[in-house]
Structure formats: C-alpha cells, structure tokens
Specification:
The chain has two domains: 135 residues, Nucleotidyltransferase, domain 5 (2-Layer Sandwich); 153 residues, ATPase, nucleotide binding domain (Nucleotidyltransferase, domain 5, 2-Layer Sandwich), CATH 3.30.420.40. With 354 residues, it is of the alpha/beta class. Its main location: cytoplasm. Its EC number is 2.7.2.1. Pathway: Metabolic intermediate biosynthesis; acetyl-CoA biosynthesis; acetyl-CoA from acetate: step 1/2.
Length: 354
C-alpha cells in the first residue's frame, strides 16, 4: 500500500511516502510557522492509496479514524488543549482532503487510553472532572509505539514481557512508562504543557504561582497561556528561540540546560515508579538523536536506577544500545520514525473499512 504521511510538529512539518512499510521519499521543513500552507502545496506526490495525518489530541478516541467534516469539526474543539499542534494538523488534513485518497487521522493520545485510572486522574473535585472531562491524556504516543517495537527488533525480546521508559526529546519532551506494549503512565497530562521543561513550553509549574499571577493581574489568562506555551522553557531561560542548536550557541546556556536535564531526570525517576522493573530506557526525538552529550548528561545522573552508558557507544550513529554489554536496564538511542507508525495505523484502518 502507498501511504503519504503528514506529521505536523510544533515547529516542523515532515512529509513522507511509505510503500508497503518502507519509507521511499521524505521532505522535512525544519522551521514551519504552521500558518502558511505553501509547504503542502509545493510538494507534489504521486498517487497514493491513503493519507495519514498525525493529530496530537484525539480526545477519548482509542483508534485512528477516516476523516470527514464531522470528525474535523470535533477535532477542532481540542485546539485550546494543544494550540501548538492541533491547528497545524487541521490545516494539513483539510489540504489532504482535497485529493481523492481517504485521509486517516492518527492520534498521539490514543496510545495512553490504556493508562490505569490512578494515572489518568487529577486530584480535583469529581464534579469538575466529570462535567468538563478533566483528566490526563498523554502525548507522543505514536513515537512511543514505534520505538518500543523497534527495540524488541534490535535485541529480540518479547514485547509483551518488556517494561520500558520512552524518553521523547524534541521541541516537546515527555517520558512514558510502557508495560507489555501499553502505556501505564506518562509525564504529559490534560495538555502537552505538563511535565518536563521543553523548547518554548514551561513544563509543570506550581499551580499556586499561576493563580498568583492571575490574582495580582500581572498577566491576563490569554497572556499567561502565551507565556507558558510560547515564551518559556529553554527559550525563556536562554533568551533564544528554544531550538537546542540556538540554546547551545547562546552566550550563557548553562542554567537553561541544567534545568532541562534535571527535569528530564526527575520525570524518568517518577515514571520508573510506575513499572514493576526497568528493562530498557529509550531516548528518541531530534534532540536526543543529534545531541549525544545531553543524553550523556541525563544518564550520568541516573545511576540510582542502574542506568549506565558507554561513551564510545554514545557517540556512535544509528539505532543502537549505548549501555554496557549485559547491563540492565538496556539503554537505547532510537531515531523516531513516526511516519512508519502513521503508515502502519493507516493501513490497518483502511483494511478494516474495506
């Protein structure tokens, strides 16, 4: 089957042609503003059987869905919960629907539908949570699904018996605990704002601090949203764009990088507590793959969990184990191939529809 995959990130756009499970063509727009549709119009693709579009937020949906106007309208309701991502996916999907091929929406949130209630719930009044659907959804699910399968291919383990921490380090950062191929806990929550410090997002902040800012009228609700999503994280602390390349080139990036590393370590420790044992830790996403020193800094603070890496393996290339031979947990660096997961899910969805 010929599948065109469309992966709008919070700062990039990736377009791929996947034929029978193999990527044969790829175009990446590293710094897409999410406003102009020019990249989508510019790329000319041959005829495909299906288009797969990544959506960060699918609400309570547990499976991919063939898009129509009704589903699009429903997905638009989640723009306030994922303002960096959802509008971009909606634009891309609408553009794709002008063609003749069916368009399948694949959701990051769907992977986390398996989380137990204790991991999904917030400590808020049940009247509020029930009325407004306030719960932890989790994100980066497509990435986690791909890399957890990929590591079992590399070391020939049974995915149903493997317990893994998936550490996704891109513009967004999350850590997910995966047991037997299912998500049991994750650092992101109701929105992709919760958890670790990210490129432009603050990560978790004391709610009392936010109440204080609003109560003292230091910022309005709209201004606070803009600060938390677009002006914080690495960008806010370093005075740069938040792109790790810009941060590391800044005059004094130390505090920003130290906070970033510390918060990822903390999330790894928290997620490890949701597993019975720790078989593997997987680092993925553009920052992890292209900034090996950062992965080294993070792992060197995690000896308490038995995590160790070999410097020579750390600086190698490709999908690989970077921990000592025979050591547990195994530590991996895996290139994120969300396009292959998108294509896989789209093929299954179209097959079920026919």
């Amino acid at each position: 089957m010929r599948v065109m995959t469309v992966n709008p990130g919070s700062s990039s756009l990736k377009l791929s042609l996947v034929v029978d499970g193999t990527e044969v063509e790829r175009t990446v727009f590293d710094r897409w503003d999410g406003v102009t549709s020019e990249p989508l119009r510019r790329k000319q693709w041959p005829e495909v059987d299906v288009v797969a579009v990544r959506f960060v937020h699918g609400g309570n949906r547990r499976t991919p869905v063939v898009l129509n106007d009704y589903v699009l309208a429903d997905l638009a309701d989640f723009v306030p919960l994922a303002p960096l991502h959802q509008p971009r996916s909606l634009m891309a999907a609408k553009h794709a629907m002008f063609g003749s091929a069916p368009v399948v929406a694949c959701f990051d949130t769907a992977f986390h539908a398996s989380m137990p209630k204790a991991a999904r719930a917030y400590g808020l009044p049940k009247e509020l949570t029930a009325k407004y659907g306030l719960r932890r959804y989790g994100f980066h699910g497509l990435s986690c699904q791909y890399v957890t399968r990929r590591i079992t291919e590399l070391v020939h383990t049974n995915p149903e018996r493997t317990q893994v921490l998936c550490v996704h380090m891109g513009a967004g950062v999350s850590v997910t605990a995966v047991k037997g191929g299912r998500s049991v806990d994750t650092s992101m929550g109701f929105t992709p704002l919760e958890g670790a410090v990210m490129a432009t997002r603050s990560g978790s902040v004391d709610p009392g601090l936010l109440v204080y800012l609003l109560d003292q009228k230091i910022v309005s609700a709209d201004e606070l949203s803009d600060v938390l999503y677009f002006q914080s994280g690495l960008a806010g602390m370093s005075g740069t764009s938040g792109d790790m390349r810009d941060v590391l080139a800044a005059q004094d990036p130390k505090l920003a990088v130290d906070v970033y590393v510390h918060r990822i370590r903390r999330e790894i420790g928290a997620m490890a507590a949701s597993l019975d044992r720790l078989d593997a830790v997987v680092f993925t996403g553009g920052v992890a793959v292209h900034n090996r020193d950062l992965v080294g800094q993070i792992t060197r603070g995690l000896e308490v969990l038995g995590i160790r890496v070999v410097d020579e393996l750390l600086v190698a290339h490709g999908d690989r184990v970077i921990s000592p031979l025979g050591a547990l947990p195994r530590v991996f660096v895996i290139t994120d191939r969300e396009e292959l997961e998108l294509a896989r899910q789209a093929e299954i969805t179209i097959g079920a529809e026919s």
